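pls design
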C-alpha cells in the first residue's frame, strides 16, 4: 500500500493510518461522512462535496429530525452521491471528555523496534505490568477496559492515546442505530479525539495555521483548547513533535447544571450571577491547567522552544468569558491567543474529513499535518489482526513445504520430459521461423525494388544539378558586382553619428581592391563606418563582404588653418591633402578588399615547369 505520509517505509503492518487496509481507497472515495453530536442532541454532518463549490459540505440537523434520511436525500439531490449504505465509511469523535494522549516512557531499545515488534512488546508489557523508564507501569488500565492507539511522532518518540473502551463501543452502537444497522452488523468507522480534529482544521484551513507550519517555527509549540459547558480538553502540538500531549476534563456540576423549570425573576437573576461566576472560575481553571502543561522543563526535555500561541474553540455561551481571561494571561505570559470562529462541532466534523479525504491530491494533506489516531483500531484489534496474519503465514509455509516435497519426487522425470519437448519444440520453431524470415525477406525485396529504382533516378538528377550549379558558378564571375557593393555601403553609412558623412571618391579594382575617400565631421563616424563594413554580410553567416579594411584620417586643426604660414603635416604613403578643407572637417581614406570580386577573380595560370611539353595551340 502506498505510504501517504512519507515518514517510514511501508510494510505489511504498522500503527499509522497508512497501514489501514482501506485507507488508500477511502482517501479518493466520497462515500464517507463525519457525524458529530452536539450537547443538545443535534447532529452536525460533514462530507466531501467538491462539486458543491466548496471542499467540505457541513450541515446541522436538529435532534428530532430523521438525520440519516435527510443526509441521504441531501447527498443524492445536491451532490449526486450515493445514499448512506453499509459500505459508507463513518467518522466521528469521542464526546465524553475522557481521552488522554501522552508520550510513553520507553528506552532507546524499545523505540528502535519496528511496529510489529513494538506491538508484541506492548501487549506483553500490559500482561506482565512492566514499567517504563519513569518507573511507572506502561499501562495503568487493562487493555480490555481501555482502547489504546499508538502512533510514532516525527521526533522518533511514541505516543499513546487512550479512551475507555465502553465509550468506544457505545459510539459504534450509536452509529449503527444512526444508519439503521443491526447491533452485530459490520461497520466501517474511524473514531478520533475532538482536539486532534480541531488542530487539523486550524492548521489546514486558516492562514494562522499555515503560518504556524513555517519551517522556521518547527521547534515552537502551539497549544489547542476546546471548551464547552460539559467539559474541556487541551493539547500541545509542534511541527517537530506532532500532537504529543492531550488531556480532557469534565466541567463541574455547577457549570453544567440544568436551568430551573419554574420561572422566578428574582431567583433567575441570582442564578445567572452565580452561573457567570462559576463559568469564569471554570474557564480560568482550564487556562491554568493548560499553562501547567507548558512548563519550560518539559519543553527542554523534548528539545522544543516555548509555547508561542494558544488556539481555542469554544461554545458561543463561553466566548464572552474567555476573551478577558485570555487577554489577561497574554499580557502576563506573552502568549498569543487565536480564536477559531467556527463552531466547535463543525470544526471537529471538518477536521475528520480533512484527515480522511485527499480532495484530488496525491495524499491526504490533513493526515500529513496531524496524523489520524483511530480508536476503533486500537492495540487489541491490531494484536488480533497480527495473530491472524501469523496463522495465515504459517499455513502458507506448510503449503510451501508440501509443494517442495512433491516437486522433489517428480522433478527428474519432469525435467527430462521438459528437455526433450524443448528440443523438439526448438527444432519445429526454428523451421517455421526460417520459412517466415525468408518469406518476409522476399516480400521486403519486392517492396524495396521501386524505391531502389527511384534512388537511381534521384542520383542521376543530383549529378545533373551539381553540373548545373558548377556552370552557374562559372557564369557568376562575369556578372557585375558593383550594385552589391553600393547596397552594402548604403546600409552601413554612419548617418546616426554624422548626418553629413560624405564619400567623395570610390575605386574598385578588378582584383577586388577597394579605395574610398570622403569627408566627415568627426573621427568616430569613420571608425563606426569601418566597424560596420567589417560585419557586412552577416555577423554569424560565415562570409564577410569586406576584408583587410584599414583607414587613415587627415584632420585640420583650427589654429593651423588660420595661420597660413603653417602647413599641415603629411603622412608617408597617404594620398590625402588638407587643401580646401574647412576647420573641424576631417578627410578620411579607407582601403580593403571587396570579397565578391576577389572570390570570383580568375586564378593566374600556372607557369609550366622547365622541360614540360607545351600544350598544342588552338586552331581555328
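designed seq:
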Amino acid at each position: 500500500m502506498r505510504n501517504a505520509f512519507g515518514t517510514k517505509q511501508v510494510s505489511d503492518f504498522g500503527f499509522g493510518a497508512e497501514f489501514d487496509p482501506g485507507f488508500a481507497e477511502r482517501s479518493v472515495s466520497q462515500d464517507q461522512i463525519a457525524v458529530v453530536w452536539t450537547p443538545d442532541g443535534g447532529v452536525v454532518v460533514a462530507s466531501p462535496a467538491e462539486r458543491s463549490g466548496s471542499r467540505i459540505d457541513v450541515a446541522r440537523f436538529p435532534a428530532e429530525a430523521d438525520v440519516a434520511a435527510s443526509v441521504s436525500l441531501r447527498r443524492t439531490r445536491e451532490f449526486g452521491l450515493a445514499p448512506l449504505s453499509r459500505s459508507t465509511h463513518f467518522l466521528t469523535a469521542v464526546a465524553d471528555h475522557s481521552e488522554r494522549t501522552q508520550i510513553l516512557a520507553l528506552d532507546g531499545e524499545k523505540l528502535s523496534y519496528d511496529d510489529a515488534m513494538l506491538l508484541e512488546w506492548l501487549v506483553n508489557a500490559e500482561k506482565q505490568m512492566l514499567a517504563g523508564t519513569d518507573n511507572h507501569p506502561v499501562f495503568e488500565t487493562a487493555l480490555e477496559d481501555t482502547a489504546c492507539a499508538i502512533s510514532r511522532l516525527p521526533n522518533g518518540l511514541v505516543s499513546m492515546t487512550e479512551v475507555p473502551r465502553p465509550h468506544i463501543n457505545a459510539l459504534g452502537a450509536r452509529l449503527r442505530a444512526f444508519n439503521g444497522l443491526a447491533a452485530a452488523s459490520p461497520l466501517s468507522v474511524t473514531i478520533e479525539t475532538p482536539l486532534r480534529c480541531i488542530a487539523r482544521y486550524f492548521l489546514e484551513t486558516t492562514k494562522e495555521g499555515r503560518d504556524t507550519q513555517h519551517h522556521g517555527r518547527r521547534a515552537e509549540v502551539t497549544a489547542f483548547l476546546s471548551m464547552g459547558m460539559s467539559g474541556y480538553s487541551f493539547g500541545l502540538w509542534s511541527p517537530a513533535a506532532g500532537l504529543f500531549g492531550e488531556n480532557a476534563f469534565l466541567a463541574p456540576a455547577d457549570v453544567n447544571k440544568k436551568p430551573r423549570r419554574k420561572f422566578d425573576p428574582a431567583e433567575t437573576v441570582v442564578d445567572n450571577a452565580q452561573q457567570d461566576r462559576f463559568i469564569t472560575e471554570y474557564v480560568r481553571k482550564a487556562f491554568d491547567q493548560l499553562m501547567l502543561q507548558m512548563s519550560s522543563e518539559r519543553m527542554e526535555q523534548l528539545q522544543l522552544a516555548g509555547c508561542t500561541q494558544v488556539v481555542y474553540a469554544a461554545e458561543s455561551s463561553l466566548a464572552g468569558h474567555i476573551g478577558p481571561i485570555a487577554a489577561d494571561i497574554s499580557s502576563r505570559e506573552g502568549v498569543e491567543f487565536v480564536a477559531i470562529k467556527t463552531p466547535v462541532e463543525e470544526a471537529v466534523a471538518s477536521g475528520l474529513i480533512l484527515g480522511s479525504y485527499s480532495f484530488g491530491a496525491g495524499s491526504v494533506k490533513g493526515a500529513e499535518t496531524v496524523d489520524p489516531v483511530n480508536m476503533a483500531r486500537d492495540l487489541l484489534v491490531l494484536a488480533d489482526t497480527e495473530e491472524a496474519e501469523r496463522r495465515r503465514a504459517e499455513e502458507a509455509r506448510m503449503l510451501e513445504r508440501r509443494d517442495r516435497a512433491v516437486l522433489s519426487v517428480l522433478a527428474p522425470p519432469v525435467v527430462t520430459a521438459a528437455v526433450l519437448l524443448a528440443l523438439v519444440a526448438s527444432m519445429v520453431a526454428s523451421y517455421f521461423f526460417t520459412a517466415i524470415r525468408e518469406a518476409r525477406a522476399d516480400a521486403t525485396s519486392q517492396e524495396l525494388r521501386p524505391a531502389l529504382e527511384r534512388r537511381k533516378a534521384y542520383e542521376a538528377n543530383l549529378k545533373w544539378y551539381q553540373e548545373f550549379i558548377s556552370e552557374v558558378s562559372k557564369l557568376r564571375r562575369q556578372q557585375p558586382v558593383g550594385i552589391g557593393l553600393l547596397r552594402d555601403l548604403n546600409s552601413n553609412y554612419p548617418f546616426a553619428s554624422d548626418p553629413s558623412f560624405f564619400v567623395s571618391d570610390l575605386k574598385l579594382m578588378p582584383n577586388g581592391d577597394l579605395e574610398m575617400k570622403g569627408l566627415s565631421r568627426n573621427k568616430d563616424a569613420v571608425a563606426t563606418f569601418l566597424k560596420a563594413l567589417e560585419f557586412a554580410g552577416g555577423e554569424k553567416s560565415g562570409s564577410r563582404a569586406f576584408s583587410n579594411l584599414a583607414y587613415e584620417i587627415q584632420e585640420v586643426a583650427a589654429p593651423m588653418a588660420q595661420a597660413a604660414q603653417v602647413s599641415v603635416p603629411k603622412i608617408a604613403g597617404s594620398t590625402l591633402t588638407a587643401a580646401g578643407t574647412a576647420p573641424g572637417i576631417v578627410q578620411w581614406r579607407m582601403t580593403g578588399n571587396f570579397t565578391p570580386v576577389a572570390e570570383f577573380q580568375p586564378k593566374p595560370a600556372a607557369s609550366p615547369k622547365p622541360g614540360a611539353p607545351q600544350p598544342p595551340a588552338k586552331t581555328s
